Each structure stands twice: as C-alpha cells, then as structure tokens.
Known about the structure:
Blueprint: H1 4-34, E1 40-43, E2 47-51, E3 57-63, E4 66-73, E5 78-87, E6 90-97, E7 102-110, E8 113-120, E9 125-131
Signal peptide: 1-33
Organism: Pseudomonas jessenii
Keywords: Signal
Amino acid sequence: MLNAATLVRKPMRNTLKPALIMLSLLVAADAMAQVPSLAKCTRSANLLACVDADGNAYSVNTAGSTIYLRGFEVAGKRYWAQTSSRYGQLTFFTGIASDGETWVGYNRRVGWTTINRFSSSGGSSARFTCSRIAGC
Length: 136
C-alpha cells in the first residue's frame, strides 16, 4: 500500500530533475555569453594544444601520472614549461620561463578541498585553499 509521502516524493522527483537540468543549462549559457572568445584546441589521445584569440598558446601532454605543460604568453613575450607529478592526492610542479623565472609548488586534495602553494624566483608566492562548494 502506498502512503502519502511516497505519492508526493515521486512527482516531486520527476519535476525536480528537469528543473535542475534546465537551471544548469541556463547557467552554462550565461557563462558562455560572458566569455568573449574561447581558445581553439586540437586534441589527440594524450595531447591537447590550444591557441586563444590573443595569440597565447599552450599544450598539455600526459604520460602516466606526469603532466607536461608548454606555452607561449603574448603579454610577456615568453615561452614557458611546467612539469607536474602526481602521488596519490599530492601533486608537485616545477616550471621555467624563457626569461629565466622559475617556480615550484604543490597542491593537495583533502576531500572536496584543495590546498595550493607556490613560490617563484620572481618573488611571488602564495598559499590558498579552494573548495568545490565555495571556490577559491
């Protein structure tokens, strides 16, 4: 025998699903409208190469738990490279740019939170925490 709670839950669930899907599509459409131009990318099995409207370019290559990033930044007119290695929930990265700047850092996932830290030879350093719910 069905009780009143069961009769209310099923129509509510059937109404809520399409509403949430529509809301997410509206948010995605609004976000796309605010982005003036997206990067044009080409992809293969483990390589992604992109160029944006300003001429900045980057590529991402994966090999096991290692990620290789390479790029060109128009504003600073410099090439850069970064290598990241993942060990469980911990990822270490190091990078170098054509103007001699170097950087090191890590990020660590703890549940839905990511703790990030980096330091560069140019004097920049930061420690910040990001959450899937609250953002950074």
